[in-house]
Structure formats: structure tokens, C-alpha cells
Amino acid sequence: MRLLTHNLLASNVKGAKTGFPLKIHVFVQEEHETAFNKAFLLATLRKINWIAFREAADSLGVPNLPELPPDLDKCDDSMLRKYHHALMEVHVKEGYLICPDTGRRFPITKGIPNMLLNEDEVC
Amino acid sequence: MGNSVGKEATVQESVAGDTGRPPRKEHEATRGSAAADERRTTEDSPTLVSGLRLVEGIVDTSGSPSEHDILVAWIRGTLERGRAGELPGNTYAPIPEKWRKRNQSREMLQFGTYTHSNRVETHVPVAPLPPELDAVVDALIARGALTELQRPDSCTINLYGPGQWIPPHIDNPAFDRPFVTVSLCSEQPMVLGRGMVWPEGGRGPCGDDERLNEEHALSLPVGSAVVVEGEAADEYEHAVPPVTAERISLTFRRRGRPGREMDERTERAERCRRRCRDVRGAIVAAAEARAGGVRRGFGPVGPIGAIGRVGPPPAKPAGRREGSVIKKPMDDDAEDVVGGGVLSKNAAKKEARKAAKAAAKERARKAKPTTTAVDGTVFERKEKVRSCPACPPDLLPPTTSDANESQCADASCVAPPMYGEDAGVPVAEALPSVERVHVQRVYDAVATQWHGTRYRAWSGVEDFVRRVVQPGSLVADVGCGNGKNLPEVESLGGFGVGCDFSVGLLEICAVERGLEVFAGDATCLPLRSRSFDVALNIAVLHHVSSEPRRRKLVTETMRLLTVGGTALFYAWALEQADGGVSGHHFESQDVLVPFHKKAGVQGKVVVTGGSGSGEKEGEETRAGGAAGEDDDGDPTAPRVYQRYCHVYKEGELETLFEHIKSWVKVNRVYFDCGNWCVEAERIA
């Protein structure tokens, strides 16, 4: 699971209010080089929730992202590459996603978050 | 290579029918001068359709043995090696069994790029372009058929035996234009048209509507090259009628680079393909109506079939004089249907309805298992239809949904503001046991084998993806299965996230293909609202067991989109002409579709999120003992799994969008390869 995927996920367990952003608890993380595509990155950075991205990056040990969404028109390539790395190259292989409202843990196995719910967790 | 001066095809205009109107400008055929052999633009080259050029004498036929003879000998030798299994990968392609009877295929040798049924499959290995063909390529360039920049990187050699033919098609837009076909052994015609239907008896089935059946024939002399680009390549289908003598053709093409040019070409070709299909559907439906519902065509042809699913034409064109071109101008009235671009929404819908009705008729005809051909030969029709029994009603959730369920579903159907950026996502509901046992578990158990046979996106889906995905597009693939739709998204510069409830399939996505996926319930997606540009919902809706849940699935998929975002839905149709593409026949709308798991194929053993934990033994027994996962049995033993499916009647799929029409617009409804399809856009 990349942080871009994380930025799109939300918990829908019974009792959740927004279910977003999910907290990340990591057991195993990997880095895989991905081609840097500036057009893609700029388009994507405009769409993501920055706060969730920054917090998630923090929890994966990729710190020092700006507190607030950067002005993308003024970002130089080295900054963009940093965002690219955090968003696209860091993968959570084993761990948990945690619902911010209920604390429900969703396991991540082989890089796949399992958001399926038990019968007593649905309405 | 040959020194002979290139002759242009002489063009003879013959007006079929009595319309008395001048042909449309772009079809204007003018008499050409047999001038110099230098490269011409299409403007000064007299051709029947713009973008078509004939350059003769590419392969020299004089002398003994001639260049032609030497080349043919090499091809035959290579063919022998291919038959003996000595060529690498899939360089040699035998005639597929299912086409043998209809002669609708040829033995093939492919170099550089592997294609199958006009699909480019880059992962299938074939030999590179061999040096023996270099001389031909050099001659093509020297004679101006191609420029050096257009130097081809692949060649498909088709070996036609007498009677063999190639149905109307548009060459895959993944290949650059122009492409070139060199003809050897015998002079045979090539036919161009838009919506050609080739029935028995030598006359179009359209009778009075002959104007619809636009057709131009061009004879291809031995050693000549026909250069195809522009309108001829992407706005006409071309075909080779049954050949009267052995013919070898060498089609040289160059793989294009993905980009704007290819996108535009794809869009253009796809528009034409649809138009041709609609015309064909209209012609066949009209013929059927006249024949009292009995179509006496050749082969298992439905009006709704993809390109090329029509029977062969009469052998008549083969007898035409060499170098002559006969053209039938279209009636101007046909403009609305053929030339006027995309059909209006209602017209398209009407066509789809008509097509589906014809398909249903086909099915009704089933009692008679033979088809009579042109010459009176009676063929046995394909009887390999897989019958799918009705799903036992007690497996299905109650039709009058209990208060709890309907409340849940209705709540999710309210207008979208409910799902604002910060409002969170709707709370999930329980998966009905039929979907858990007869869908989720089946896919988990058969994941590996399933994956092995479905490695590529359906072309209709791929076309949609190419049309809407742009660099930076976020794409949700709801019910992604083994992820076959996602690589295309990536190659277009988009980012795809797949969701499925079969963890077995997801492991294939993530581990084998490195795709971004998660496990989730498609009727209640754990994804933020208004966060995706594009959504795919392919072959998912037919696994959902109640109408409220189907509506909810649609709502959920649309909820993910930003305003202006589009989604594509595909669901299996009840109407399957002659068993359709997949050979299934559905006895009811709620059916169990058997999946035969082969011995030795290991199902993925998975633990799902737990919704299956309360499973009772009795449910599997009730399912006829052939469903669900057998925990005690040998996971590698062969067995039949029953997949639950709800197949959609004509007109049914779009009704699932009615309750959200305040914020979702259905842009297109159509039928493709046994599926009903909807393209919908979020408008608020």
C-alpha cells in the first residue's frame, strides 16, 4: 500500500464518523523506485488531502513534509521528488490501518489492506 | 527489387442502385494517370477511399525463379518449421478450431508483435522481423510506399487456402498508420466498407436498404503493396472475401507510441467500429423482419456481434477484373446513420434494443441445430452452449426486502451531499450468504485458474480507459478481480486502485502484478467521496443478489467520483445470441454459472475479514454440494464451483441509475460482447 492509496481509503465500520484519515501502524515497509513523473505528481498533489498525507508520512519515518499544502507552482524539483518518494515509493507491506473514530484495526498483509468487516460491524 | 514502374490502381466508377445522386466527395473516384512511381500523397493518388494507395511491383515476379518465388519458398519453409514447433514463442499460429469450419481464419506467421483476433498482446513472445523480409521493407521504402521513419517493426504473414477469408475489421490502432500489405501467389480483392454484412445468395440482406451496405472492392495484384492510412485505415473496415486460390499476404506495421496521436486514432477507429456495428445491426434486423424472424445467414452471426462476426460474402467479387474498382455510393439518406458521426443517444439505444431482440430470436431458434450455407450445405451449428441453471430461490435474499435492508439501501441512495468531503463513508452492511458462498468463496478458490485465462482487459473496457484516463487521473476499479484493467491505466499515466472482496484474486494483483489494491465490499466502499476521476465497475453488478444492493453498488461507485468524473459499468446480459461470446445460455435471470476448476490448480487459502465466520454447514449442502470452499477436501482436486449471477435484461441496467438522476447522468447504454454497459457521469 502506497500513501497515495492510503489517502483515498476511509473506514466504514459501524460507529465511524468520517473514518478518515486512517492511522498507520507499520510492521514491514519497503521502498521501490518508481519513475518520477512531474505531470502526474502535480496533478495528484492537487487532489490529495495534504494533512492526511503528512501525518501518514510521519508515521512511516518520512518526516519534514510541510505543515500545510505547498504552493505547487513554486515547488522546485527536489521538493517534488521528496513528495514523489513519500507518495509513490514507500510501501506498507505488513501492518495495520486504524479507524480514527472507533479504533478498529484493518490488517495489511502482503501490501493489501483488508477493509472487509465482520457481520457485527455492519448495519 | 522490381524495376517495373508502379501502376496506380485504375478506378472505375459504377453506380449501383438508382439513386442518381453524385457520390459523396470523399468517396469521389477519379481516373488516375499511371505516372511515376515516386511517393504520392493521397490527394494526387486516385483511390476509391482516401488514404488508400496501391503500389505495384514491390516484389518482382519476372524471371525464374523470381524474387516472388524465392520469397514464397522461404515463407513456406518457415511455415513448415512453425508447424513442426521449431519457431520461437507464438510466431506460428495455427487455425483456431472454432473458426476452421467457417474458413474464417488462416495459418499465420507473426514477427515483431503478436496479435490475436486483432488484439495486440505484447507479453506473448514472437520472433523479431527476420532478415529475409528486409528486402521487401527496403523496396517499400525505395518505392515510396513507406518512408524511412515509418519503417515497420512487425510483419504478419497470412496464408490463405482456397475459400479462406478475413472478416471486416479495423487494424488495431496500437499500430501506426500507414500500414502496408504485400500480396503474393494470386490476385485477390480486398473490400472496404462501413457495416458490411455478407450473407448468402450474392445480394445484401438489406434488400431495399442496400444503400446501407457500402462496399468498395480493390483488386490486389501479385507483388503489389496496398498502403492504408487515414480514412481507409480508421474510418472503414476492410476484409478479404473467400479467396479463389492460394494467397499469401504480408502485412507490415509499426507499433505506435502511446500518446495523443494514438489516442485520437483509437477514438476515431472506435467511433467507426461502433458505427459499423450499428449499421450492421440495423441491416440484419431489417432482413430478419422481412424474413419473418428467420435469418438464413451463414455462421453463428448475431447483429450484435463484434466486428468480424459476420458470414463470408458471396464469391462474386473474386471474379472481378484486375485493377478495377467498383463502388456503390451511399445514399445521402444514409448519412444520418453512417456518416453523421455518433448516433444520437436515443437512436443508439434503439439500435441496441433492436440488436438484443434479434439476439433473443437467435436463441429461440436454438431448436434447429443446423445452418444452411450459400451453396445449400447444411452445417451443424456450434452446440457447445453452456447451460446455466436457475439459482434455487431459497438461496436468494427475500425479494421484498426486509425493513432493515431497505432502510440501509435507501439511506445510501439519497442525493450526494450526504457524502460530502467530510461526511465520511456510508456504513457497511452484511454480505448476503449467496454472495459470500457463491461469489466470494468461489473466486478465492479458483483465483489462480481464473487469472490464468483472463490476463487482458476487454477491448470495450480498454477503449473506455483510453478515452477517459489522462496523466494524473485517479481511477477506482471496483471489483478489480485479477487486476487486468489496471495496467492500461498506469500506462496512460493514471493511478489505479483496485478493490475486490476476493482476497485470493487480490494477492495475484498485489504480489504478481505489483498493483495497488485493497479488500472491500463494493456495495459499501471504504473510500472517500469525490476523490476519483474515473471509476470502473466491470462484471460486478451481475454478482449482486438483490435490487436494493445493486442500486447501492451503483450509488457507491458514483459517489467516489468528482463532479465531471465518469464511470463504466458492465454486467452480463440475459440475451446471449447462440450462447454469446462465452458460450453461456441462461435459463433465468438468477442463475448459477458453473466454473470447472481443473485438477492441480491450487486455490488460494485465505481468511476474509470475517463476514464468513458464521457460515453454517447447511448452506453449502443446500447449494447442491457444489459450491463454496471445501475446507476438508484436497484443494488441488478438480471440482465444479457454482457462481451466482444475476444477468440483466435489456433496459434493466440503466434503471439502477434512476434514483440518483439528480446527480448522475447516464451518457451511454450499449451492448458489448454479451454484456449490457452503461457509461455514467457525475454531474453534481
UniProtKB/TrEMBL annotation, chain A:
<dbReference type="GO" id="GO:0008168">
    <property type="term" value="F:methyltransferase activity"/>
</dbReference>
<dbReference type="InterPro" id="IPR005651">
    <property type="entry name" value="Trm112-like"/>
</dbReference>
<dbReference type="Pfam" id="PF03966">
    <property type="entry name" value="Trm112p"/>
</dbReference>
<protein>
    <submittedName>
        <fullName>Methyltransferase-associated protein</fullName>
    </submittedName>
</protein>
<keyword id="KW-0489">Methyltransferase</keyword>
<dbReference type="InterPro" id="IPR039127">
    <property type="entry name" value="Trm112"/>
</dbReference>
<dbReference type="GO" id="GO:0030488">
    <property type="term" value="P:tRNA methylation"/>
</dbReference>
<keyword id="KW-0808">Transferase</keyword>
<dbReference type="GO" id="GO:0046982">
    <property type="term" value="F:protein heterodimerization activity"/>
</dbReference>
<comment type="similarity">
    <text>Belongs to the TRM112 family.</text>
</comment>
<dbReference type="GO" id="GO:0070476">
    <property type="term" value="P:rRNA (guanine-N7)-methylation"/>
</dbReference>
Automatic annotation (TrEMBL), chain B:
<keyword id="KW-0694">RNA-binding</keyword>
<dbReference type="GO" id="GO:0008757">
    <property type="term" value="F:S-adenosylmethionine-dependent methyltransferase activity"/>
</dbReference>
<protein>
    <recommendedName>
        <fullName>Fe2OG dioxygenase domain-containing protein</fullName>
    </recommendedName>
</protein>
<dbReference type="InterPro" id="IPR051422">
    <property type="entry name" value="AlkB_tRNA_MeTrf/Diox"/>
</dbReference>
<dbReference type="InterPro" id="IPR037151">
    <property type="entry name" value="AlkB-like_sf"/>
</dbReference>
<dbReference type="GO" id="GO:0032259">
    <property type="term" value="P:methylation"/>
</dbReference>
<dbReference type="GO" id="GO:0003723">
    <property type="term" value="F:RNA binding"/>
</dbReference>
<feature type="region of interest" description="Disordered">
    <location>
        <begin position="606"/>
        <end position="637"/>
    </location>
</feature>
<dbReference type="InterPro" id="IPR013216">
    <property type="entry name" value="Methyltransf_11"/>
</dbReference>
<dbReference type="GO" id="GO:0008175">
    <property type="term" value="F:tRNA methyltransferase activity"/>
</dbReference>
<dbReference type="InterPro" id="IPR005123">
    <property type="entry name" value="Oxoglu/Fe-dep_dioxygenase_dom"/>
</dbReference>
<comment type="similarity">
    <text>Belongs to the alkB family.</text>
</comment>
<dbReference type="InterPro" id="IPR027450">
    <property type="entry name" value="AlkB-like"/>
</dbReference>
<keyword id="KW-0862">Zinc</keyword>
<dbReference type="Pfam" id="PF08241">
    <property type="entry name" value="Methyltransf_11"/>
</dbReference>
<dbReference type="InterPro" id="IPR029063">
    <property type="entry name" value="SAM-dependent_MTases_sf"/>
</dbReference>
<keyword id="KW-0489">Methyltransferase</keyword>
<feature type="region of interest" description="Disordered">
    <location>
        <begin position="1"/>
        <end position="47"/>
    </location>
</feature>
<dbReference type="GO" id="GO:0006400">
    <property type="term" value="P:tRNA modification"/>
</dbReference>
<dbReference type="Pfam" id="PF13532">
    <property type="entry name" value="2OG-FeII_Oxy_2"/>
</dbReference>
<keyword id="KW-0808">Transferase</keyword>
<feature type="compositionally biased region" description="Basic and acidic residues">
    <location>
        <begin position="21"/>
        <end position="43"/>
    </location>
</feature>
